[in-house]
Amino acid sequence: MTAELVRGQNHTLPQTRLEIRVSAGTPVVAGATLGDERGTVRGIEWIAHPGSPQLPGLEVSQQAAADHRLAVDLEALPTGAHRVTVLLALPVGVGGPVRFGAVPAPFVAVTGLDGTEIASFTLTDLDAESAVSALELYRRQDVWKVRAVGQGYAGGLAAMLADQGVTEPAALAGTIQEAVTRGLARSVAPPPPRTPEGDRVRHATGSADHRSTAPPPPPAPEPPEPLTDPAATGPAHTAQPHTAPGPAAPGPAAAGPAAAGTSAGGPINYAHPRRQHAAPPSPPPTAPPAQPGQPAQPVAGDATGWSMDERLYNQIWGMFEDLARAVAAYRSAVDFAESRMDQELDRALSDPRNRIGGAGDRAREAARAKRDELTSRAREALDRDLAQLAAEAAVVEPALPAAYAGWGNPVWHAHRIPMEIPMALRIGDLHLPERTDLRIPLLVRLPLERGIWMDSGRAASEAAALMDTDRLRRLAMETAVAHAARLLAVYPPGEFAVHVIDPAGSAAGPLAPLVEAGVLAGPPAAGPGGVASVLAHLTRRVDLVQMAVRARAADSLPPDLDTGEQLLVVNDFPHGFDDRAVTQLRYLADEGPAVGVHLLMVADREEASAYGPILDPLWRSLLRITPVADSHLADPWVGHAWTYEPLTVPPGSRVLEQVLPAVAEARRAAGR
Asked: Regarding beta strands 565-573 and 496-501, do their DSSP bridges make them parallel or antiparallel, or are they unpaired?
């Protein structure tokens, strides 16, 4: 189970022999320090760097590189070492970038020796810093954990080493940089772009701080994780992606000539340099050679990754980012054109002589003509980029596996229950008003690390406000059932169980496909007794698994405990819930995802207002989606309000009647 950390978040490490993988878009220096219980480095013998790359239980790279692999054996560390801090720094004096704000956001992952990712962290919000403490592995009560740090230092290596208690940090920093300079000829450069057009769209980054020279930061590995809903969580809420890094990329460009100039940039380069941090074992599909003067033709899977699923996943997120950037560039250019027109009019009309005769009219016409010209040029650039993205979407959509595909994709009619968990699951589509027919799949990583809230309230959107309350609630439950069916269909047999709480029995109709197929863990729980029973069962599972993980005693779990992933679908919350049940539900929302228990709540937040602010943390911990189209999701790069479109089963389709019996049959064949 991969944990995608945000700054300050920690995660328990399931093993002690690890690799730490670093990916950056430019050569960086990677090192590590050992600290005692207070985090103090006792001497230079506790520092691994390119000039001294090996310590007991720790080995780092001997040169600057765009990608690093650091080996760590926590059991072999010197006595008294309780902390391993991973350090990154930019080489100095070699003509390269001198601050992290001018390079792609570095990505750091902790993996097992087999490459299985345990936790990852994208270092965002860096600017003038030239050195950074990326993350730390630390021991707490005989349990090793990883914490995302992301602490930058404008003073470079010397300032960072001094902060860790190193004596004579400037001299040591000089020694490290000298070793890096000697080995720089062997450093690994970032891969060149595949097409001569250069980097992908960066129109939104033409601000005065010159961040337009850097590639855009990487997308978060799960968009609801990079997508937030400030309106849904109340005025006191600040966006909390919870499991995914929230990159804080530059917003729309400042009004000025730079913004106008960049809006007319070249076509999109589909070889996205940040779609994946590790090179695949075999090259991805490549586009056929483009005709002279024509853009390269997109190809499904034209991104890096270890498998086609991973390539498609990275390609989809690259498309999402490209659409965000292209639209941000267009909006920025339009704002600049309007601002320039206003300034020119103010200057012209401030002269009293222009207020008499035709001079003022001519000034107005000239200013408006210039505004229209700039806007037209920006729209041409946007249309060109959107056309290329639409062409890519047309190629990618038919090639998607079932987990990424909509219900109308023919792949579902030939679907077979897989033997491995896919990388992600599609839960809807996203689009912007500049081109509503260009839809980007909204993917969440699996296993789920954040619950889902299906909003059945009428205030969710204009479409919801115009819909009958009973119809909206039924539609919300039908959508939740479809999501549960997708999860059951993409997991191996017996590795995913669905529980349902329906206190009043009002969801019998929407639940019929799951009940009739026999794929639920038990009958839908109704009444106070049923609610209490299911919550007690799942709470016990969370407690037992947590204790087993902390004690490293997984073999001691009771034989009747289902260790597969569990999904609890809650209908019509908070009806039928007393204070104890609400407390248990909050506990499952907070602690459940880490041990495989997830929530899918169908609820109207306004109806839960009687509980007061006690439920605010619950809503904030869940990803809010809606059964109807709603523009409530905001991305962290440029702040667009994306319209979310739920996945719907085509009218007359019997895809659920085909998929769910296949799930039941696969479970019976596996003896589950």
From this structure: parallel
